[in-house]
Amino acid sequence: MSYVADRSLDRASAPSPDAMTPRPFVVRERRQDTRDTATYVLEPADGVPLAFSPGQFTMLGAMGVGEVPISISGDPASPLLVHTVRDVGGVTHVLLQARAGDVLEVRGPYGTGWDVEDARGTDVLVVAGGIGLAPLRPALLAVLARREQYRRVALLYGARSPDDRLYPDELDQWRERGIDVECIVDHGTPGWLGRVGLVTTLLAGAGVDPVSALALVCGPEVMIRHVARSLADLGVAPDRVRVSMERNMKCGVGLCGHCQLRELFICTDGPVLPYSVVAPLLAVREV
Ligand SMILES: Cc1cc2nc3c(=O)[nH]c(=O)nc-3n(C[C@H](O)[C@H](O)[C@H](O)COP(=O)(O)OP(=O)(O)OC[C@H]3O[C@@H](n4cnc5c(N)ncnc54)[C@H](O)[C@@H]3O)c2cc1C
Predict the structure, then answer these.
(1) How far apart are CA 18 and CA 152, in angstroms?
(2) What string of H, E and C letters represents the secondary structure of the chain?
(3) Does residue 16's CB lie within 6 angstroms of at least one atom of ligand 1?
(4) Binning pLDDT at 50, 70 and 90, where does residue 232 land?
């Protein structure tokens, strides 16, 4: 099966003009998650909800400033659009100044999803690093909505410090609702009784069946590589490991080539791809 979209520019395959038209969304709520990260609950100004699949992203914009790709971090069953944004540079810094009542611009949703339905009847292993938990949250909520259809569900979450963990209250709720949640941090703080180290050290103890489990992985690229290699060592096939790739993007619809990774356009062929497809395309330097 090819993961590369047909990019011949005929009328049928060209993105519709609507795909480039931003829609106004009103900020209904802003929650400060960590020192540099906030979650926005957005309501469509025209009242039409934005349907999406877990794993997809939008181009989120501040008028007159610019737009950036941001994964949807909300519940796919909710009519509200939720984004979790980390302040790393020009556009994200301005986005994080938005307050309730302000209007942001949204294009999309774009890209591929996690397709968690492929794990029905089997184990699901979710591995997140830092802000990487945001794109995985809709997948976790979709699994929780049909918890009885999955076997063991484990979330392994690595963060820089306990205070850098996203959604700490929800982590406890997910535990109560049947997800085995394990957190690990690079640096502990006084009072932290959990683990300290790399998320890869948790993989062997996750207790999932390596032969059938579906693994969903999102975080810094170096973490993705190490997790995928460790999963392979444990017997998980690379095509049962799905990863979300990050590349700088401009159009989001496969036109500009900004996010091209050899034959893949991450905006349309990804961002979620099987590791078996991505691995040969990454310049693997880490040992
Ligand atoms: C599919 C996808 C989903 C994403 N989801 C989220 C999300 O849910 N929440 C979130 O906070 N961020 C997410 N990002 C990353 C976000 O798009 C970037 O942080 C943003 O584009 C940075 O723009 P800026 O103008 O604020 O920073 P800039 O001023 O452009 O850059 C600041 C620094 O970040 C680096 N940088 C810029 N863009 C990226 C990028 N895409 N990947 C890695 N480094 C980058 C630059 O090289 C520079 O060092 C996602 C990216 C992609 C491709």
Answers:
(1) 41
(2) CCCCCCCCCCCCCCCCHHHHCCEEEEEEEEEEEECCEEEEEEEECCCCCCCCCCCCEEEEEECCCEEEEEEECCCCCCCCEEEEEECCCHHHHHHCCCCCCCEEEEEEEECCCCCHHHHCCCCEEEEEEHHHHHHHHHHHHHHHHCHHHCCCEEEEEEECCHHHCCCHHHHHHHHHCCCEEEEEECCCCCCCCCEECCHHHHHHHHCCCCCCCEEEEECCHHHHHHHHHHHHHHCCCHHHEEEECCCCCCCCCCCCCCCEECCEECCCCCCEEEHHHHHHHCCCCCC
(3) no
(4) very high
Write out pLDDT tens, residues 181-225.
999 999 999 999 999 999 999 999 999 999 999 999 999 999 999
> How much is the average pLDDT of 266-277?
95
Quick one: which atom of ligand 1 is closest to the CA of 94? 26
Q: Is 134 in the pocket of ligand 1 (CB under 6 A)?
A: yes
The CA 135 to ligand 1 mean position distance, Å, reads: 13
Say yes or no: CB of residue 271 within 6 Å of ligand 1: yes
- Ligand 1 pocket test: pick from 70, 95, 164 the residue with the most ligand atoms within 8 Å of its Cβ: 70
Question: Is the shortest distance between the CB of 53 and ligand 1 below 6 Å?
Answer: no
Please give the model's pTM, rounded to 2 decimal places.
0.93
CA–centroid distance, residue 88 to ligand 1 (Å): 7
